[in-house]
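Notebook p. 47: complex prediction with BLP.
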Amino acid sequence: MKKETQIVSLGRDKKWTKGVINPPVFRASTMLFETMEEMRFATKNRANGEMFYGRRGGPTHFAFQAAIAELEGGVGTALYPSGSAAISGALLSFLKAGDHLLMVDNAYEPTRALCDNLLAGYGIETTYYDPLIGAGIKDLIQENTKVLFLESPGSITMEIQDVPTLSRIAHENDLIVMLDNTWASPINSRPFEMGVDISIQAATKYIVGHSDVMMGTATSNEKYWDQLREHSYLMGYCTSPDDVYLASRGLRTLGVRMAQHEKNALKVANWLATRPEVDHLRHPAFESCPGHEFFERDFSASNGLFSFVLKEGNLKSITALVENMAHFKMGFSWGGYESLILGVFGIDKLRTATTWDSSKPLIRLHIGLENVDDLIADLEAGFERFN
Ligand SMILES: Cc1ncc(COP(=O)(O)O)c(CNNC(=O)CNC(=O)c2ccccc2[N+](=O)[O-])c1O
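Predicted complex, structure tokens below:
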């Protein structure tokens, strides 16, 4: 089954939908049993899709979990109240005091803060590594290293990692490979075929696609699924069936939305490449993006999120550029149908394994589903204000 057909049909088995198209919202804490035998059976199979108790989820959750697991190519998917919760839940399901974590240097800022504050406080040591380190990762592996964490591309500076090489070396040293796979979404890369053990999504972004739900998913291979599922359950992670319904609903149009985001973004990026103010594009489909060769090899498409670096600028000129836009609004997040613009400062302070030249300002764009000519006109007017 091709991915376009998968996203329409997965997670719609009649055992969950009861015959309607979209799996209904089953809201529950308590689930009732007629007999002691029924209760014993549900308890025994509480981790295998039997209705047991609200925290384990109900048919709305089971349908969505099955769809994401199948799409990503894993055996099971755990749900979390946000992408960051999926990251912390996955890490805390496998790390303990005295362990060592290898974390990519261009990780999403709150992921770095998790490592430097909470994990450090638990006695878990983090070493950051260059996203383009490749086989060099071997030199950073210690006796107590347990997890190699990747985020590819990095959500601000967009470097793409050599996931297969990193995964191979990690497995030669018995590490668990976790990938923040949010940019690819579940349809534009094959994490488990690249050697990833746990693929993480901020469903908040493209899966939900409408900027109205916070949610995370972590999908595991056979080897780590039981531990991920049970440790996440012990930490009490669960999600609202209403949010899961909205995520399921978003999933059905993921393919067409991503294709339009990609088409619009490539047109905007190619236009930006002609602007005299622009130093270079950090769009994975462009050779100027570090790790572009890995995008070409490992991804089937791009999307609406990319960055570009200006030759020069300061707070005043960047403010003039990003404020008063007709269509590009300023806000955190990405992956909805709307266009967003983010002037990102202080990246150099968020790098400990690599350096970043902050003298050249970086702008991150999320290209939405508006008419792309309107978006280009908006940016053109922005550059008028900038200059
Ligand atoms: C790759 C990746 N992985 C995980 C998450 C977290 O998802 P969540 O927002 O559902 O928790 C995200 C969320 N991304 N959010 C953004 O890019 C915008 N948010 C921010 O920039 C932000 C928000 C709060 C605090 C700090 C930042 N920041 O990155 O500077 C992500 O991009």
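Notes: The radius of gyration is 21 Å. The longest strand covers residues 145-151.
Next step: compare against the earlier run before touching the bench.
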